[in-house]
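for the writeup, i need someone to sanity check this before i put it in the appendix. the sequnce is what the collaborator sent (i think, or maybe the updated version? ugh). structure was predicted straight from it, no edits. if anything looks off just tell me and ill rerun, i have time this weekend
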Amino acid sequence: MMPGDSSMASLVQRIARQALVTFRKTPAVGDEASKSFLENHGKLRSLMSEVRAADLKLVPRRAEDSDAPPAQHPYHRGAPPVTYMHICETDQFSMGVFLLKSGASIPLHDHPGMHGVLKVMYGKVRISCFDRLERPGGGGDALPRAEMGALRRYVLRSTGEYTEESGPCVLSPDRDNLHQIDAVDGPTAFMDILAPPYDPDDGRDCHYYKVLPGDGVKDSEQTEKEVWLMEISQPPEFWCGGEPYPGPEVCL
């Protein structure tokens, strides 16, 4: 295979190359995306729609192979409820696979200034997406985000279930940027691209939130609902372990 020839490249390799092209120059927060970015993002979504567990050499796990996550593990003892397979990372994006055990959740969290594309490999997930509600004229109606425990008004944009047959779930800096991911009816796994990667030193740390009592999101039919969110520490029942990625090597 000649350098740059994609005819023999694995689907995972082609996705990584397209992500590199797509996120080489991302629109600034609040700016309109360029025609070039939108075209490349569409190509990336199309490739992500094609990928399946077999392309990553993932073997779908059964419920009996997946221990239920412990209710409370403040010292992170025992097997983690969620694990991550690292595929590749550059300054522009990171790519990997999250694997959730039966009943596990990735708590409500944000992606500051980041784009994301998520594609289920097997099983089913429920994803609830939120955005900060800006009042007319900008600003907000609460303390700055950096204040732990600060309250801010958000809007529930969508709640939906995704399987391997579903298209990708997409987030951007100003749309669907906060989400909670729940495993439904057994273990599940999804491929995840984030651009740029999390980097606390560059203002892209992961923050966790909870919906205040009375503002629940149980009704999947009710969207565009305003809720109060409070920033919290990482929930003690959630932590993420690592495991080897078995799929094709990615070279960038």
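Residues 1-5, 67-76, 136-146 have pLDDT under 50 and may be disordered. Residues 113 and 173 are 5 Å apart (CA to CA).
thx in advance!!
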